[in-house]
Amino acid sequence: MTKEEIFEGLLEVFKVIRPKLDPNAISPDSRLIADLGVDSLSMMLLALASEEKFNIKFSQNVFETVNDVCEYILSAKKDA
Fold first, then answer.
1. Neighbours of 39 (CB within 10 A)
2. How many CB atoms lie within 10 A of CB 8?
3. Which of 14, 30, 39, 67 has minimal Cβ neighbours within 10 Å of its Cβ?
């Protein structure tokens, strides 16, 4: 799985957990809290939906950007 495929998958996740968020406004450099308005509940939903979509488990990592999440998922997929 490539980083681009992971990013596209995350866009699908964002469509579900933040339906009012314009997917065109999301880039790898988007900051989860400051740019996308992700709060603690949305962060939990993002983690749960991503775990299901990518068949991984999140640890207690802190992510600042969408790219951070992509990198974590990519790493978790390689370790699996």
1. 11
2. 10
3. 39
Backbone angles phi, psi at 65, to 5 degrees: -125, 165
Query: Hey, what's the torsion of the CAs at 28, 71, 78, 1, to 10 degrees?
Result: 0
Distance from chain centroid for Cα 73:
8
Note the pLDDT tens digit of each residue in 25-40.
999 999 999 999 999 9
Residue found under tokens 């939903």: 45
> Residue 37 has what DSSP assignment?
-
pTM over 0.85: yes
Q: Which amino acid is at 63?
A: F
Q: How many CB atoms lie within 10 A of CB 31?
A: 15
CA–CA distance, 78 with 80 (Å, rounded to integer): 6
Phi and psi angles of residue 21, each rounded to the nearest 5 degrees, phi first: -80, 130
73 neighbors 50 (Cβ within 8 angstroms): yes
